[in-house]
Specification:
157 residues; alpha+beta
């Protein structure tokens, strides 16, 4: 089974998604309807983009097409889906041809709303934090995830 995911922040960069999942996905441009993209600002973190519901607002982004279950599990873990600041939910997007569709998106949870601070500055993220994600944050996440999965596997035996 596969899932289409609207991405608008860290996951919109092919290099980072490939590093996380080992895959490159086909992409199409789209707008997320009835949401706005704000800055998640937390002490000790880089400022990240987060979407929250907002009537009559649009967020420009990209849809990763046909994300397989293994890659989706990695992305869910990376986004701490359903346990942290983001959750994966269904939302409506509009494609460039005007067609609307339902896709998954990682949106801010109630916990994230406590840390919102204005519109997300993508250029600032790229210039200040992209390299840190590529060289430090993602490798550390992947190493810790592999250890956690190995421990879970050992515990099940």
């Amino acid at each position: 089974m596969s899932t289409n995911i609207f991405v608008y922040g860290v996951l919109q960069y092919d290099e980072l998604v490939q590093q996380l999942t080992g895959n490159t996905f086909q992409k199409v441009s789209a707008e997320l309807l009835n949401h706005q993209r704000l800055t998640l600002h937390m002490e000790g973190w880089s400022d990240l983009g987060v979407v929250i519901p907002s009537p009559d607002s649009l967020v420009q982004g990209t849809i990763l097409l046909e994300v397989d279950d293994a890659a989706l599990a990695v992305l869910d873990d990376f986004e701490e889906a359903d346990t942290g600041l983001y959750m994966r939910k269904l939302a409506i997007i509009r494609l460039e041809n005007g067609q609307e569709a339902q896709v998954s998106v990682y949106a801010g949870t109630q916990k994230a709303r406590e840390h919102l601070d204005g519109e997300w500055d993508e250029q600032a993220f790229v210039s200040k934090h992209y390299a840190t994600y590529k060289d430090e944050i993602i490798p550390k996440f992947l190493k810790e995830r592999a250890l956690r999965l190995a421990e879970q596997s050992d515990a099940e035996e």
